[in-house]
Design goal:
It is a single chain. This protein is an alpha+beta fold. It folds into 2 domains: 2-39 and 261-436, Multidrug efflux transporter AcrB transmembrane domain (Multidrug efflux transporter AcrB transmembrane fold); 45-258, Gyrase A, domain 2, CATH 3.30.1360.200. It has helices at 5-28, 40-43, 62-79, 97-100, 113-120, 184-196, 233-246, 262-315, 322-351, 356-388, 391-426, 430-436; strands spanning 45-52, 86-91, 101-108, 126-130, 153-154, 158-167, 174-182, 202-206, 209-212, 224-227, 252-260. The strands form 3 sheets. A 4-stranded antiparallel β-sheet has the order 2-3-1-11. The longest helix is centred in the middle third of the chain and has 54 residues, at 262-315.
Length: 440
C-alpha cells in the first residue's frame, strides 16, 4: 500500500475534482449565470455616485458619520429588493474636504437610470436645532434656518420612527404625527438638551425645511420626540418609512450616473469567457508539445485549479467583474509559470543522469524558492491594489490574490503527486524517462 501511496492520492484528487465539478454544474444549471455573482459591468445595471457633504462635521465625528452614512444607505437600497447591490465609500485625494468623500451605489439588473434614482429615493436628513436668542421666527420668514443654531441632534441618533394618530379639538378627526425614538446616545443628548433649554424653541428640520418648532415645556427624559406638521396620512407614512430605512447623518448630492445595458454586459461576459478559454487552450497545447507527460500532468493540475477557483467564486461568493476575469486569466499564467520552473529544473537533473524520482524531488526543491518569491511579490502587489484601489481594481486584486494562493497548491502539491504516481506505476524505465524529457 505504501508503495502506491502517491497513486492513491492522485486517484483521490481526481475523485474530489470530479465531485466538485459535478457540484458546480448541478447546483448552477437552474440558476442565472450558473449561480455566479456578476458585477455591474457584466450583468448590466446602474451606478450612482454621490458626494457626502461633511462641511458641518467636527473632525472627530467624520469617520463615524461616514460609516453611518454607508450603513443607512445600504439598508435603504436592500429594502428595494435590488439583487446584489454594492454600496461603498470612496475617499479621493482632493484637498477640498467637501469633494473628497463619495458614495458609490451599484444596482445590478436595473437599466433605467431614472427609475434607479427614484427607487433609491431621497433619504431625509433629520436635524434638531435650538432657536437663536437674538432672532425670532417672525423676523426670519425668508431664511428660517438663520433663526436656528447648528444641528445638535441628527438622524444618526435615531433608533426608529412610528406613525401615530391623535384627536384634535375633540371633533373626532385623527391627525397623523411622527414619533421618534432615539438610541441610547440620542436619548442622553435629547434629555440634556431639553433640561438645559426649558422655555426655548426647538426646531425640527427635515432636509433643511422646518417641520415643527415646539417650545420646550419641560425636560424630556424618555428619549422620544413628536413631529407634527399638518401631515397628510400618506406623507406621514412615507416619512416614517424613510426615517426607518435610514435618516442620513450627513446630506448627499448626486454627482453622476452610469447605465450599462444588459446586452452590453452579456457581451462583455462572453468576450471574457472566450478570452479565458482561448488562452487556456494555447497554454495546454504548448505544455503538451513541449513537456510531454509533465505537460499532460500540468494540464490536469490546471483544470483542477480552475475547478477550485470557480468553487471559491461561487461559495464565498466573489463578485466577478471584467477586471476580475482579467485577474483570473492572469492567474492561469501564474499557475503554469510555476510548473514551467519545476519542469525545467527536473529536465536539468535528468540530463545530469539522475533517476526520475530523484529528479522530481530535486526539481521541486530547487524551484520552490523562485516560486515562493515570485508569488509573494505578486501577493504584495495585489494587497496594495486592494487596499488603495477603486472598486474595479479591488475586484482584479481579490481574484488575482486568490488565484496565486490556489495556483501554489496546484503546482506544488497536485503536480508533484501525479508525477510521483507516474513513477510508481512505470518505475525507472527508458520509456518513462523519455516522456519526462522536454523537447529542448
Amino acid at each position: 500500500m505504501k508503495k502506491y501511496g502517491n497513486t492513491i492520492k492522485a486517484l483521490a484528487i481526481i475523485f474530489l475534482s470530479a465531485s466538485l465539478a459535478f457540484w458546480l454544474y448541478s447546483s448552477g444549471k437552474k440558476q442565472d449565470n450558473y449561480g455566479f455573482k456578476l458585477g455591474l459591468d457584466l450583468s448590466g445595471g446602474v451606478q450612482l455616485l454621490y458626494k457626502a457633504d461633511v462641511s458641518n462635521l467636527a473632525p472627530q465625528d467624520l469617520q463615524a458619520s461616514l460609516a453611518s452614512l454607508r450603513d443607512t444607505i445600504e439598508r435603504r437600497v436592500n429594502a428595494f429588493g435590488v439583487g446584489e447591490p454594492i454600496v461603498q465609500l470612496e475617499e479621493g485625494s482632493s484637498l477640498d474636504k467637501e469633494a473628497r468623500y463619495r458614495l458609490l451605489v451599484e444596482l445590478p439588473g436595473m437599466t433605467d437610470t431614472q427609475k434607479a434614482i427614484d427607487a433609491l429615493g431621497k433619504t431625509p436628513v433629520l436635524e434638531f436645532r435650538l432657536q437663536k436668542d437674538n432672532l425670532n421666527l417672525a423676523s426670519s420668514t425668508d431664511k428660517l434656518e438663520e433663526a436656528f443654531g447648528p444641528a445638535l441632534i441628527t438622524g444618526a441618533h435615531l433608533d426608529r420612527a412610528e406613525l401615530q394618530f391623535s384627536q384634535q379639538g375633540g371633533i373626532g378627526v385623527a391627525e397623523p404625527s411622527v414619533v421618534l425614538h432615539f438610541n441610547s446616545q440620542g436619548k442622553e443628548l435629547f434629555a440634556k438638551l431639553t433640561k438645559d433649554n426649558v422655555g426655548k424653541v426647538f426646531g425640527i428640520f427635515l432636509d433643511g425645511q422646518l417641520l415643527s418648532a415646539p417650545v420646550i415645556r419641560e425636560p424630556i427624559l424618555a428619549g422620544t420626540a413628536q413631529i407634527t406638521g399638518n401631515f397628510q396620512t400618506k406623507e406621514a407614512q412615507d416619512l416614517v418609512r424613510n426615517l426607518n430605512f435610514g435618516a442620513l447623518p450627513v446630506p448627499i448630492e448626486l454627482l453622476s450616473t452610469q447605465s450599462i445595458g444588459a446586452s452590453l454586459g452579456h457581451d462583455a461576459l462572453l468576450k471574457g469567457i472566450n478570452a479565458a478559454v482561448f488562452g487556456l487552450l494555447l497554454v495546454i497545447v504548448f505544455m503538451l508539445i513541449w513537456y510531454r507527460l509533465p505537460g499532460l500532468i500540468a494540464t490536469f493540475a490546471l483544470l483542477n485549479y480552475i475547478v477550485i477557483m470557480l468553487a471559491i467564486f461561487k461559495y464565498l461568493p466573489v463578485t466577478l467583474t471584467a477586471a476580475g476575469i482579467a485577474g483570473f486569466i492572469l492567474s492561469l499564467g501564474m499557475a503554469v509559470d510555476a510548473n514551467v520552473l519545476i519542469f525545467e529544473r527536473m529536465n536539468e537533473e535528468l540530463k545530469h543522469g539522475k533517476k526520475i524520482k530523484e529528479a522530481i524531488n530535486t526539481g521541486f526543491e530547487r524551484a520552490w524558492s523562485s516560486i515562493r518569491d515570485g508569488n509573494l511579490s505578486s501577493l504584495i502587489t495585489a494587497a496594495i491594489l486592494f487596499w488603495f484601489g477603486t472598486s474595479m481594481l479591488k475586484g482584479f486584486a481579490l481574484v488575482f490574490a486568490i488565484g496565486i494562493l490556489v495556483s501554489m497548491l496546484s503546482a506544488i502539491y497536485v503536480s508533484k503527486t501525479f508525477l510521483l504516481a507516474a513513477y510508481e506505476l512505470k518505475g525507472e524505465s527508458k520509456s518513462l524517462r523519455k516522456l519526462f524529457r522536454s523537447l529542448k
